[in-house]
Amino acid sequence: MTLLKEISDLSAKKNLPDDILSALQLIVSKNISAEKVAGEDLLQAAAPTLGVEDIIAGVDALLTGWLTEGEYCRQFELQLAKTLNTKYAALVNSGSSANLVAFASLTSPKLGERAIKRGDEVITVAAGFPTTINPIVQHGCIPVFVDIDIPTYNIASDLVEAAISRKTKAIILAHSLGNPFNVAKIRQLADKYNLWLIEDNCDALGSTYNDEPTGSFGDLSTISFYPAHQITTGEGGSVIINNSKLKKIVTSMRNWGRDCWCIPGKDNTCGTRFEQCHAELPDGYDHKYVFSHIGYNLKMTDIQAAIGLSQIRKLDSFVDARRENHAYLKQLFSEFEEFFILPEATINANPSWFGFMLTCKDGKVNRNDITKYLNSKMIGTRLFFAGNITKHPAYQGVEYRVVGDLTNTNIVMKDSFWMGVWPGLTKTHLDYMYETVKEYLTAKNLL
To answer: CATH number for the 315-443 domain, one of 3.90.1150.10, 2.30.33.40, 2.170.120.20, 2.70.70.10?
Structure first.
C-alpha cells in the first residue's frame, strides 16, 4: 500500500481534514523511527537522519503542484548562504553536478584571461572521490596530483607551491571526510599566483577552519545533499558563490547555458527581453532563448529543497552528534594504536566528521580481511573512495602530472578504511564496533 493510499484511507474513515496530518505523522514515524540493533541490523557507514517533519515538508511542497525549481529553492539558497556566511548559493541536482558546474563556470569566456582553457593545469589530489577530478579531465585540462598527509588525509600543503607552473589556473580540493585542508596555506597560494580555488565541501558541511565555515573560503565551493551527508535532500547539491559576476555565470551553466536570469515562471526581469542584440542572432531575439554558455540543466526541485530547509534547521545538532561519535570512537580505539593510525584533525580546524578513518599500520592487520570480517558482523565499512584515482580503469590513458610521489596516496589505497559516525549511531552501536574489532584482533592472536 502506498503512503498516500494509507493517508487517504485513514482520513476517509474519520472524514476530518486535520486527520491527514496526524495520519501522515503516524505512518512516517512508524517507517523511519526504528533504532538499529547492533549485531542484527547493518550499522551503515553513512545514512540519512530523517524525521517526520522532513517528510511532511516534502509532501507539503508536492501539494503546491509546483514540481521544478521554485520558492522553496529560493528560500533554501538564502538559508545556505546565511549558514556559510556567503553571498549566494545555486542549488543543483547533486554534489557531483555542483563540482561540474563550478569548474565549467570558470571556463566561461566572460572571465577573459582568467578563464580556464583546454591544456591548462589544475592542482588536486589523486586520493578522493572521482567527481572532484572528473570536470578537470572532461574540460580537456590536466590534473596535477600532489600527495596527501596521514593522518589528516588532506593535501600535503607544503608540496603545493612546487606543483604550480605557468600553465596552472586553479586548485580544486575536498575537505577529506569532513576534515578541512590547510585553508590558510592554500588560500595564500591561490592569491599569490592568481589561481581560482574551488573548495569541495561535499563531505564537510558544518566544519570550520579558524572558526569560519568551510565552503566560505573558495572562489566557488560545493556541497552535496546525498543521503550519506550531513543533511540530505535525497539527491541534490549546491554551488556556493561570493562574487556577483560568478553568480550569473554559475546560474547560466546550471540553466541550459541561458543568458537570461529570470527565475522559473517569470519573464522579462531585465525589462529588455525583446530589445537586445547578441552575436549573430536577429536584433530583438527573445532573451529567454539566448544561450551564452555550453550549459546543462542541473536544477534542484522544490520538493527536494523543502526537505533541505527542514534538514538544515537540525544541522548544528547533526554536526554535534558526528563530533561526539568520532571523539568516542577515537577514545575507544586508542587501545589499538599499535595496529591502526588514528585520524587527526587539521590544525585550527573543527571537523564535521563524515567518517572514522583507520589506516592499518606496519602490515600487522590486512585491510581486506578486517573489512570482510566487520561486514560479516553487520558493521558497514567504506574505503577512502578512489584511493588512488590513477590506478582505476577509467583513468588509464588520461593525461596528468604528479609532483613528487604518491606514497601516502598508495598507502591509503591499500591499507585504509572508515566506519560511520552519523547521528543515527548510538554509543551502543559504537561500543559494538569497538568490541568487534577487539574480537578480530584477539582471534588473530594480536591481543
So the answer is: 3.90.1150.10
